[in-house]
UniProtKB/TrEMBL annotation:
Keywords: Endonuclease, Exonuclease, Hydrolase, Membrane, Nuclease, Transmembrane, Transmembrane helix. This is Putative endonuclease/exonuclease/phosphatase family protein. The keyword Nuclease applies. InterPro entries: Endo/exonu/phosph_ase_sf, Endo/exonuclease/phosphatase. GO terms for molecular function: endonuclease activity; exonuclease activity. Pfam families: Exo_endo_phos. The chain crosses the membrane at residues 33-54, 59-79. Residues 98-293 form the Endonuclease/exonuclease/phosphatase domain.
Length: 310
């Protein structure tokens, strides 16, 4: 019986580790979901290997354990690769930004979400899948008189950007060919410093190669902007995803380590970060915190504070 369990476990763990390891050989978009969970699956494989060793001390179980540890270690290294140097703790934030995918069918909680936005005191708010807030726009305008999306610049109500300060520049663009008007570009003056913003909502990574094309467009949009830049939104992929890795290296964006887990909500802090807030020097992230109430969404929102190297 032990030998049978050992063989079954060895086969299952071998398949799992092989799927995760394919990222180092070729790009398979069907496995993009697996790549984002590399650390989680590596941890699961380590536990599985320890169980195998309890059944039978064999060289193959030790080999699988070694591979799982390597995958875990490299996954952690990849998360740390883009961690920005922390700003001085005593430096007051220049501005605060909220980024939140509220889920496009979440109409029952629209009033609560609008109340939270108004009370948040964030200077800039990015709302993705914003259709539930369409009826709340007039009320939000009292606290955030400047907006992009849901009737301002575009009739689409997927990406909504709210600001307490006037925009010095604003534009709505599309990413790739799957969805329209899922990228907003704006600029806001904060006490004599112009900060540029990109709000993006990418396709799911297992929708063929659409996300790859969107990242190419997003890289072009970011490269065309000079000066301090914030990119925030729902990438539907973790930083460890190979395509997100290439995008980060090609654009010079930075984030914090560890990023707050934003999905799935049932996993809480043990989930993955598919919603990101990224900066490019001289702008620095002072902090990124998860909004603990998901307000009925399938994502947790993020609240970030920024400083700048003068």
């Amino acid at each position: 019986m032990k030998d049978t369990l050992y063989c079954i476990g060895s086969v299952l763990l071998s398949l799992l580790l092989a799927l995760v390891s394919l990222r180092y050989i070729t790009h398979v978009w069907l496995l993009a979901f697996v790549y984002s969970f590399q650390i989680h699956f590596a941890l699961a494989a380590i536990v599985g290997c320890m169980m195998l060793l309890l059944l039978r001390r064999h060289w193959y179980a030790y080999t699988l354990l070694t591979i799982a540890i390597v995958l875990l270690g490299h996954g952690t290294i990849m998360l740390r690769e883009f961690a920005a140097a922390p700003s001085d703790a005593g430096t007051p934030p220049l501005f605060r930004l909220m980024s939140f995918n509220i889920e496009h069918e979440n109409f029952a909680n629209a009033g609560r979400i609008a109340d939270f936005i108004i009370a948040s005191n964030a200077d800039v708010v990015n709302i993705l899948e914003a259709a539930p807030l369409y009826a709340q726009i007039a009320r939000l305008a009292a606290a955030y008189p400047y907006s992009i999306g849901c009737g301002a610049e575009t009739d689409e109500c997927d990406t909504l950007v709210l600001s307490k300060r006037p925009f010095t520049d604003k534009k709505v663009k599309s990413l790739g060919e799957l969805w329209r008007n899922r990228l907003t570009r704006s600029a806001i003056d904060f006490d004599g410093v112009t900060i540029n913003f990109l709000a993006a909502h990418l396709a799911k990574p297992y929708f063929d190669d659409f996300q790859t094309d969107e990242l190419v467009d997003l890289k072009s949009a970011a490269s065309a902007i000079e000066g301090p830049l914030v990119l925030a939104g729902d990438f539907n992929s973790a930083i460890v995803d190979p395509r997100i890795q290439r995008f980060m290296r090609g654009t010079g964006f930075q984030t914090v380590f560890p990023e707050p887990a934003s999905w799935p909500i049932k996993a809480h802090s043990f989930g993955i970060s598919i919603d990101h807030v990224l900066t490019r020097p001289p702008l620095r992230l002072k902090s990124i915190k998860r909004i603990e109430d998901n307000f009925g969404s399938n994502h947790f929102g993020l609240m970030a504070e920024f400083t700048i190297d003068r």
